[in-house]
Amino acid sequence: MTRDQIIDWIRRYAAAIAENKVQLTELDAALGDGDHGINMDRGMGEVAAKLPGVAGSDIGAILNTVGITMLSKVGGAAGPLYGTLFMRFSKETAGKLELTGSEFVGALAAGLTGIQQRGSARPGEKTMVDALWPAVEMLRQALTDGATLPAALQVAAAAAKDGAAKTIPMQASKGRASYLGPRSIGHQDPGATSAYLLLAAAAEAAQAIPPNASV
Amino acid sequence: MTRDQIIDWIRRYAAAIAENKVQLTELDAALGDGDHGINMDRGMGEVAAKLPGVAGSDIGAILNTVGITMLSKVGGAAGPLYGTLFMRFSKETAGKLELTGSEFVGALAAGLTGIQQRGSARPGEKTMVDALWPAVEMLRQALTDGATLPAALQVAAAAAKDGAAKTIPMQASKGRASYLGPRSIGHQDPGATSAYLLLAAAAEAAQAIPPNASV
Amino acid sequence: MKKLINRPEDVVDDALHGLQRAHPQLLRVYFEPTYIMRADAPIAGKVGLVSGGGSGHEPMHSGFVGRGMLDAACPGTVFTSPTPDQMLAATRAVDGGAGILHIVKNYTGDVMNFAIAAELIADEGVPIASVVIDDDVAVQDSKFTAGRRGVGTTVLAEKICGAAAEEGQPLARVAQLCRQVNACGRSMGVALTSCTVPAAGRPTFTLGEDEMEVGIGIHGEAGRERRPLAQADEITDILTTAILKDLPFVGGDRVIVMVNGMGGSPLLELYILFRHLAAICDQHAIRIERSLVGNYMTSLDMAGCSITMLKVDDELLRLWDAPVATAALHW
Amino acid sequence: MKKLINRPEDVVDDALHGLQRAHPQLLRVYFEPTYIMRADAPIAGKVGLVSGGGSGHEPMHSGFVGRGMLDAACPGTVFTSPTPDQMLAATRAVDGGAGILHIVKNYTGDVMNFAIAAELIADEGVPIASVVIDDDVAVQDSKFTAGRRGVGTTVLAEKICGAAAEEGQPLARVAQLCRQVNACGRSMGVALTSCTVPAAGRPTFTLGEDEMEVGIGIHGEAGRERRPLAQADEITDILTTAILKDLPFVGGDRVIVMVNGMGGSPLLELYILFRHLAAICDQHAIRIERSLVGNYMTSLDMAGCSITMLKVDDELLRLWDAPVATAALHW
Ligand SMILES: Nc1ncnc2c1ncn2[C@@H]1O[C@H](COP(=O)(O)OP(=O)(O)O)[C@@H](O)[C@H]1O
Ligand SMILES: Nc1ncnc2c1ncn2[C@@H]1O[C@H](COP(=O)(O)OP(=O)(O)O)[C@@H](O)[C@H]1O
Ligand SMILES: [Mg+2]
Ligand SMILES: [Mg+2]
Ligand SMILES: [Mg+2]
Ligand SMILES: [Mg+2]
């Protein structure tokens, strides 16, 4: 994945968040405090505004900016978690202008580990981890099986979507939704949903010719 | 009018207030603060409870108790106004066990004067004066014309009813309703309405054989 | 009706029992007749300050009883003026021999009940002065009205006169200060929703989702006009313009301002109003010397606010800054 | 949505500008990143107290910045935890050389953001302690939850630790006091209505005319259970019983109690709750030493309340009584 595709990924993610802002907020109103879409959109809006300024940097520097911006602009639980994901991803990709499949999955896995260290959620606790964990697993598996990164990201996005959907019958034991106890059952986790959008954006970016590729 | 009829008057008035509590309150909600029925009912409830204890006193003493009780239990604008009416009425009837027509109208007129001294409202300002003033006038007129007190009180009650109805097109210039300016037009004044009930109760009591007349 | 109450007819008594238990060091609550007295009254040689009015405006007046402010408050039932027997009992209880000042808000009921009480007190030979506060610019003061309503300036008058009384100033001076505060204070309010009187059980009036009532009273009385709901800055403009024009306040004036919540509007919103109010004062070269932001004179659960501005001099400011120890104001 | 606001996205900044103008003697407001600092910070040799959280709970925390309480507060957007850059800037600004205490309410977002900030601050060599407040008995503290929420005890902890820091106690002691307060404080709340987040524009949840939500959080999170709307005394029973059982509080205990309004409930109603709360304490021979009644930790315009009880000893009481000068608490 090239630097421009990475930028395209983030831009597509920002657009997807903006598009799904209301839906994410409604999911969070059912399980939490009804701000997930608003928070993510505020943060990703800031990120999108900063992208042109860092477009000439390496992937690590670009994603460090993404991580720091999310950390300081999203707030709530999602801010430090996504911030951590991108900052860890950035550490793994410092100085790089293009990522191989195994570099990408390694960086994403490092990001997930960061999220789990920060929030100590394991799969099954009805959080974004339930979308990210199967995505990383399936991404690694597909690449091992010889798939190209674009193809493997398609598989990973599908796994994330599936993982997000599987949070519906779960009872939350992490985050604000855990206060609901059994009443948390029956709703899809907003963070898992925004995490699926992240993977879907990556799959699209990997497939597409980035708009500024020719620049 | 005998002492027992006076007691019956007050008892009937308390009952009429209780019955019209909601209507009086609704009139006051349109023109003021929506408490006239509640306040009058609280006060007249206390008055009714005190009547048995003073039933053996003279008319002046009985109505002094009525006035003081209203003064201390009704509150708002109506409390001191009705309190003043009964206390002035009581002064005029001290020591009496029965009232002639002219004694009754004299005492009622003194009560009205008291109200006007306290609140400085003249007829036409959309207050209880608009019911009381024509009632006193017509009562005096009917008695002068030779009517019995019961008959004259019928006339007075009709005049009070008419006076209360005539407050509808008036613009208030006294009391809380005056804040509404022209918006006070179109609603009947609650205090004029409760004043009509007072005259109606008097007319009924004068006509009826009081329940404890034989005791 | 969504209220934390027991029986509607008990709200005032229930709350007064709670008030007594919450502030045993500050005040004593008496019943039949009902009044609230500062714990250390009567204070020999000090002018006694007595106020009162309908309940439902808390913390006014019960929350202003204490050192440096009121000696006693007489609460009526919700939105209904208290009665002369309460005022008489309160006045007797706090009489320290230097006379009594009644601070009365200009509502027909309050004025008449306090007037009767004052007559009875004067009959007992106690020196008594009454000052009626009528600062609401939403009402035209003319022979076609009962005069302007007493609103926010009452809070400032009680603080300032309380300080003067506390330092031993004589009745004539305390009363004169009260008249000065009334002459120099102006207020106006706006409602975004009606309040609901517990005994009535439903809103006193109805406002559309996109309407507001400008120039509202504190008892759910209708205001000057109904308008489309506006943003905070425009609301602040409407209220402040009316206030500034009325006194008028002019460049160089020094003011105490109060942005008061009506009970159902969060503090966050009151500070939003304050921001623009301060900008307007800057534009007019009016200097905000002190400020109060919060719920001081409420109208049950009404959403809305009022703004009060009081022109002050050094002496009023000194009295404002003097120590006060009540449930609602303390410094 | 009936709110005194301009654009929903500006509510926090607008209010902070107002806060600055209303309290220039007490505090300074900074933007990008946003924090509120007491006017005379940093104070050399004093432990710096920093707290923060989502906005919409005013006066918490901005109203608690000042002498004897917080050195700085970091407000997030409405109901959203603030971010590490705010905490870092605030901490640097108030660092008086004696270390910093972060008082954090137990919400995943708050805890994580403060944790990141603490790591960054520790990297700079500043002694830092963090105490997480988790006093809400409505939430079971188990591995199946994010732990108990931090609610009313936070206010009491900030006052008591602020007093200890003000008199020069060292960081370890101030942090230990904070843990003691957290260990001895318990709270629970009830909502009669939802709040409406300005950016959302409609109520977070819906409650029927005759329903209440018991064990509510301060962000419109659902509570422990939905019940038929009850009278004030029964609500007080429900909250107090849960609180008393939990610590447990027993006969002979001395307590500070807070009856806190959620923003849309009038003060009158809070005193009604206090009445029965005091009666329950009497029954259990628990002695109410001090009390707070009012809106201290709100949830925008939500109607409802919470009760907090803190078991105290002479030392906590002494620190409670120590002078404090903030916008919301002053004595
Ligand atoms: N401990 C945790 N580990 C991983 N993800 C978490 C954790 N706690 C919460 N989340 C995620 O955060 C999402 C909520 O984010 P958001 O609404 O922005 O924050 P907040 O709960 O502070 O309002 C949840 O849907 C969940 O996916
Ligand atoms: N100055 C006045 N003179 C005579 N009657 C008055 C005056 N002011 C008010 N009233 C009467 O009082 C009535 C209102 O009484 P009530 O609602 O009990 O008092 P409040 O206005 O204090 O709530 C009005 O309808 C009017 O008839
Ligand atoms: Mg959320
Ligand atoms: Mg009325
Ligand atoms: Mg009234
Ligand atoms: Mg949140």
Descriptive notes:
The complex is a heterotetramer, with two copies of chain A (215 residues) and two copies of chain C (331 residues). Chain A has helices spanning 3-19, 21-31, 36-54, 59-73, 78-92, 101-119, 129-144, 149-165, 190-207. Chain A has 215 residues and is mostly helical. The longest helix of chain A has 19 residues, at 36-54. With 331 residues, chain C is of the alpha/beta class. Chain C has helices at 11-22, 84-94, 108-123, 153-166, 171-184, 232-246, 267-283, 314-321; strands spanning 27-30, 35-38, 48-55, 72-78, 100-105, 128-133, 185-191, 211-214, 225-228, 254-261, 287-294, 304-311. In chain C, the strands form two sheets. Chain C has a six-stranded mixed sheet with strand order 1-2-4-3-5-6, sandwiched between helices. In chain C, helix 7 links the parallel strand 10 (254-261) and strand 11. The longest helix of chain C has 17 residues, at 267-283. Chain C is globular and about 50 Å long. Chains C and D meet through helix 1, helix 6, helix 7 and strand 11 of C and helix 1, helix 6, helix 7 and strand 12 of D. The structure holds adenosine-5'-diphosphate (2 copies) and magnesium ion (4 copies).
